[in-house]
């Protein structure tokens, strides 16, 4: 039965890990301007620009 | 917390200088519902030094305008006295503050959700008969998990609670904070003494549901508000961007300065920009009220909302979205949501007080008869279930949906609370020229051509100095050969004409000759004088709008008394007046100066609506209970009137009353439903049929039902 103590604490800690990940996502602006995402798909140049930017970052 | 009194020196870095006013943007803390917004607006309305103010839909941003910087200090102090915090911010900081507020709210909600969810699992295990060893362990874990909920997630509740206590002002957080604090304290005491009164689950779930419902309702309101803004350029959800000759459909928001956009016939320009094509013929009636299409040449500015009438055109982007002329305009006016003296908020105040009293006395009664545990459960459930959030949420929802309904009917309402007042209108006064008649008067080209080109220039210069249906008629006759001069000492003579000095000549354009009387309703003349010598006369013709008489008859059938106020001469007005049915017929005024119209409005018994256009109606429109302007320069109209028509269609007057009736019905349904719902749930909680957790679930359900009721009633006209 003692194993239950461990399992309960383990399950609580998993939810805390989720919470930490959620905080990280919030800080990385993952939930900002949710309605802009579908519009960005239409913006071909934006995609190209992003790819170019990534390329630039990599070459530094 | 002490209310702030900031010095001019401290405020100066945040103050921006406008044309004749100073502007200060502040970030507001402690706004939970529209009742809070109402309290702040009431405080600002009472402050005569604040010239005007604008508040965002969520209530977190407030822009103050005043003639003196010191006035801001007083206003911030008054807001502090009400239990809120106003923090001066730079314009760029506002977005950052809003983002931080959003992030903070979503994090608090997540912590409350995760912890409350785990606590509920432990509670369920305990209720289902967990062994004592596990029971103590689960209780201890519940306590640990409830700590971040009570200390971190519930921080907005504690802030409101503290503000309420320190300012001795009642707010919704006071009873909730009291119940949560008491519940947590009692549970902790029971945990330490191994008692049975453990409510970590109830306290955590209640906090989670309260925060969750506030968060969702707040964001829902913002979404609806955003939809209102998007409608300011109707039908524009995508733009045709041209890159290297290739066309692609993009969101107008994603366009940048200098991008090329193509507009096809019957499409609406999505941006403010410069015409690149040789010519673009556009309908600008949304902005200017001008029904005649405008011819724009290469290099001219085209505004968002203009509809292309012929062919296709290329436009170079100058500004997009809320930065466009129409975007800014609607943004400014729709953001100024003023709640004014709302009976419903008085209802909220009294109802909340009643709930607190019922809760308090039930706690005393059950403490004496059944012990603290039962007393806490009953009083806690009453406070949670009877929170009148549905009214606080429902009223702004009605305002926003009805505002949107109006906009889709080409009616722009400046103050959202006004629509419920429209139904009280007893008298309707119409201006004649431009309101009941067409907005452009036809000028006889044959008569005008009889004048030499220099005199034509003098006449046009004087006429174009003012915006009036007759001057719009003259504008059509203007061509490249005409020189337009500055007019000195311009004078408007109501019912008689206009005069002024043009190129050192004293020019008069009069509706009657100085020595005789010649005129009729549909055919009359303008008499042109230059240095007191009659140069000649020009025939003018104005037709009655097709819908004018049918609209008047329909309004009379609604028991509205109709009056006609005109600056025109007796014969013109009387001939029109004779066509108005005798039932519910008011009075008519002829040769009325702006002051006469204003006095007439003031003399009428009962609430009056004035429908007019042109400068001569401004005083009367301002004086009226409801002022309505026909299409004209939108910026000017919105400054003086409560309601602006974007189309010159008189049927819109009737439409306003139809919408107002719907708004009133939605308000009555809302208040009836919330009263019945809250009264029945209070009784159920009092007799123990509703536990605190069930109460927390029932509380947002009332808001959802309100959303359904209001939404279904205000969806379509």
Summary keywords:
heterodimer; A: 60 residues; mainly alpha; 3 helices; 0% strand; rod-shaped; disordered C terminus; B: 717 residues; alpha+beta; 7-stranded mixed β-sheet; 6-stranded antiparallel β-sheet; 27 strands; 51% helix
| Radius of gyration of chain B using CA atoms only | 31 Å
Q: What percent of residues of chain A adopt helix (DSSP H or I)? A: over 70%
Strand order of the largest sheet of chain B: 15-27-26-25-16-23-24
Determine the mean pLDDT of chain A: 70
Terminal CA distance of chain A: 57 Å
Largest interface: A-B, 23 and 23 residues
Q: Give the strand content of chain B.
A: 15-25%
**Helix-residue proportion of chain B:** 40-55%
- Give me the secondary-structure category of chain A: mainly alpha
How many strands, what sense, and barrel or not for the largest sheet of chain B? Answer: 7 strands, mixed
Q: Structural class from helices and strands of chain B?
A: alpha+beta
* Unreliable residue stretches of chain B: 336-341, 518-523
Give the helix tally of chain A: 3
Using DSSP, what is the number of strands of chain A?
A: 0
Radius of gyration of CA atoms of chain A, rounded to a whole number: 20 Å
Oligomeric state of this protein: heterodimer
> How confident overall, as mean pLDDT of chain B?
79
Number of helices of chain B: 25
pLDDT < 50 stretches of chain A: 46-60
Overall geometry of chain A: rod-shaped
Q: Largest sheet of chain A, described in full?
A: none
């Amino acid at each position: 039965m003692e194993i239950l103590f461990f399992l309960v604490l383990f399950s609580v800690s998993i939810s805390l890990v989720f919470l930490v990940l959620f905080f990280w996502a919030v800080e990385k602006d993952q939930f900002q301007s949710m309605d802009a995402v579908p519009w960005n798909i239409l913006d071909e140049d934006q995609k190209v620009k992003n790819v170019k930017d990534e390329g630039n970052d990599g070459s530094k | 917390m002490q209310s702030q009194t900031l010095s001019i020196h401290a405020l100066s870095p945040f103050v921006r200088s406008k044309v004749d006013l100073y502007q200060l943007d502040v970030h507001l803390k402690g706004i939970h519902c529209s009742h809070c917004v109402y309290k702040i607006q009431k405080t600002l309305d009472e402050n005569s030094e604040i010239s005007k103010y604008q508040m965002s839909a969520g209530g977190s941003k407030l822009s103050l305008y005043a003639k003196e910087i010191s006035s801001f200090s007083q206003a911030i102090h008054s807001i502090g006295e009400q239990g809120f915090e106003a923090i001066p911010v730079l314009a760029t900081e506002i977005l950052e503050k809003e983002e931080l507020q959003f992030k903070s709210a979503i994090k608090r909600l997540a912590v409350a959700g995760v912890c409350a969810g785990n606590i509920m699992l432990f509670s369920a295990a305990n209720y289902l008969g967990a062994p004592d060893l596990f029971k103590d362990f689960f209780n201890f874990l519940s306590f640990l998990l409830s700590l971040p909920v009570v200390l971190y997630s519930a921080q907005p509740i504690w802030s409101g609670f503290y503000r309420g206590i320190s300012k001795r002002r009642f707010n919704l957080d006071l009873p909730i904070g009291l119940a949560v604090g008491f519940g947590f304290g009692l549970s902790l005491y029971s945990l330490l003494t191994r008692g049975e009164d453990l409510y970590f689950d109830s306290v955590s779930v209640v906090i989670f549901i309260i925060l969750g419902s506030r968060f969702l309702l707040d964001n829902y309101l913002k979404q609806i508000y955003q939809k209102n803004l998007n409608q300011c350029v109707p039908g524009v959800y995508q733009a045709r961007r041209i890159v290297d000759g290739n066309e692609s459909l993009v969101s107008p928001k994603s366009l940048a300065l200098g991008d090329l956009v193509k507009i096809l016939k019957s499409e609406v320009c999505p941006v403010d920009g410069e015409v690149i094509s040789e010519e673009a013929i556009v309908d600008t009636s949304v902005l200017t009220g001008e029904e005649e299409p405008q011819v724009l040449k290469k290099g001219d500015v085209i505004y968002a909302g203009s509809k292309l009438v012929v062919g296709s055109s290329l436009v170079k982007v100058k500004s997009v979205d809320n930065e466009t002329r129409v975007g800014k305009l609607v943004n400014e006016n729709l953001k100024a949501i003023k709640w004014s003296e709302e009976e419903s908020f008085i209802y909220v105040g009294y109802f909340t007080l009643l709930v607190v009293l019922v809760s308090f006395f039930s706690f005393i009664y059950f403490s004496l008869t059944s012990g603290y545990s039962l007393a806490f459960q009953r009083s806690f459930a009453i406070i949670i279930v009877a929170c009148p959030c549905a009214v606080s949420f429902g009223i702004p929802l009605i305002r926003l949906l009805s505002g949107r309904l109006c906009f889709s009917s080409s009616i722009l309402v400046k103050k959202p609370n006004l629509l419920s007042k429209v139904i009280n209108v007893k008298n309707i006064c119409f201006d004649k020229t431009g309101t009941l008649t067409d907005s452009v008067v036809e000028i006889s080209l044959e008569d005008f051509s009889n004048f030499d080109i220099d005199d034509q220039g003098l006449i046009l210069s004087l006429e174009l100095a003012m915006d009036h249906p007759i001057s719009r008629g003259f504008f059509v006759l203007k061509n490249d050969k005409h020189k337009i001069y500055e007019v000195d000492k311009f004078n408007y003579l109501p019912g008689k004409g206009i005069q002024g000095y043009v190129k050192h000549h004293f020019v008069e354009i009069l509706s009657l000759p100085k020595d005789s009387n010649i005129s009729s309703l549909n055919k009359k003349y303008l008499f042109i004088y230059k240095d007191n010598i009659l140069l000649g006369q020009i025939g003018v013709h104005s037709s009655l709008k097709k819908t004018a008489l049918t609209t008047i008859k329909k309004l009379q059938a609604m028991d509205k008394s109709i009056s006609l106020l005109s600056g025109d001469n007796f014969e013109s007005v009387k001939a029109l007046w004779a066509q108005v049915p005798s039932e519910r017929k008011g009075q008519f005024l002829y040769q009325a100066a702006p002051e006469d119209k204003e006095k007439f409005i003031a003399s009428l018994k009962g609430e009056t609506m004035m429908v007019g256009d042109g400068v001569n109606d401004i005083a009367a429109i301002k004086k009226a209970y409801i002022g309505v302007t026909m299409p004209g320069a939108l910026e000017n109209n919105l400054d003086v009137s409560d309601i602006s028509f974007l189309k010159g269609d008189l049927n819109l007057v009737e439409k306003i009353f139809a919408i107002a009736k719907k708004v009133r019905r939605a308000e009555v349904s809302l208040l009836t439903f919330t009263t019945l719902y809250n009264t029945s749930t209070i009784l159920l909680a009092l007799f123990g049929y509703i536990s605190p957790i069930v109460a927390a679930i029932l509380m947002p359900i009332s808001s959802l039902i309100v959303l359904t009721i209001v939404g279904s009633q205000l969806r379509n006209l």
